[in-house]
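Invent a record, attention on tokens:
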Amino acid sequence: MSPTKRNVKAKWPGFTTDLLRGDGEHADRVSFLELFFDLVFVFAVTQISHTLVHSIDDGHALDGGLQAAVIILAVWWVWVYTAWVTNWLDPDKAAVRWMLIILMVLGLLMSTSIPEAFGDRALLFVSAYVAMQVGRAIFTILSMVRFVPENALNVTRLTIWFCVSAIFWFWGALTEDLTARLVLWGVAIVIEYLGPVSRYWVPGLRSSYIGGIPIRGGHMSERAGLFVIIAIGESVLVTGTAFADHPIDLPNTLAFFASITGSILLWLLYFSRAESGGSRFIRRHSNPSLVAANSYTYLHVVLVAGIVVIAVADELVLAHPIDAPRQLTLALVYGAPALYLIGNLVFKKSIGAPWLKSHLAGVGLLVIFGAVVLLSGIQLPALVHSWIANVVLIAVVIGEEIDFRRERSRLRSLR
């Protein structure tokens, strides 16, 4: 669905070439350049998980976890806003291509800085991040202002919000106190995440109307699905690397299969039903932009965070598969899949599914198992806990499939 175009060349500066996506047969297609752009975020997710593992190994789990949370939210935010822009603009147009290429370079600088974002590379991390957010927004304004000025005004409000948050990003980067930096960057994240909720309210300008922003449901759902694959791919990389670095014996082999089985289950939980269902739901909904804002802009960050923490848990288990894990490792082994299930549950609800009993039961079982093990002090090898978590996820996958087939049979009987 394209916005109604109005050429206002005489009034506004901006690109004279129409860079908006058309309405043709392949309007929802994800371009190869967008997939190329995503490679930077494969590296970013890898950096986040490995940095968190190092923080845990060094005994700084709380600080490392809070810092990782800020970084995950920032990385997701810069990616998802780029996905929105390429939902509006055509990546096959030369100017948009160059914009994405420049964003890739900046994204690579940002990603390389992640391990030292709370160290010596704070200013580089922030400079790259802010340049991506503000620069892409200005480019979008120049692309839209002559053809869809209403949407250009919406992006202008967004740009103002990014400029306000940039104050806190740079303030945090320039302070030497790491606690102060964490707080200031947390404020910046809160400002940016409150932007869509407040409809980018700016004094003197009316608030944005999200229902007026065009959205291509097929493109947005596919882009979000691709990021989920990126995150799951991190688990696969962790598994393969760890198995290659350890001797091939029974414990390591069982831990390897536990991890790869978990990755397959994560894929099944998302792609069996949710990914295609989201695209269909957006197309049918009276306000597709609102659905995309809720389901893909916000809720998917919970899924991504769950997958990243699962990768961290896998790496800790693979390092010592037959040892009794520390309490933190146990909490991650059971808590991370529970977080992912919660993300799946809420996302599927947002695209028209009921509250899935299989997912609710899975979350409950993971929490119960984790609490029992932590409180009782039961000593079991780490890989056993990984397999227990996998068994719960297997039960959830089977339960969801049974419920889906029952519902499909019921609908057929009503025809």
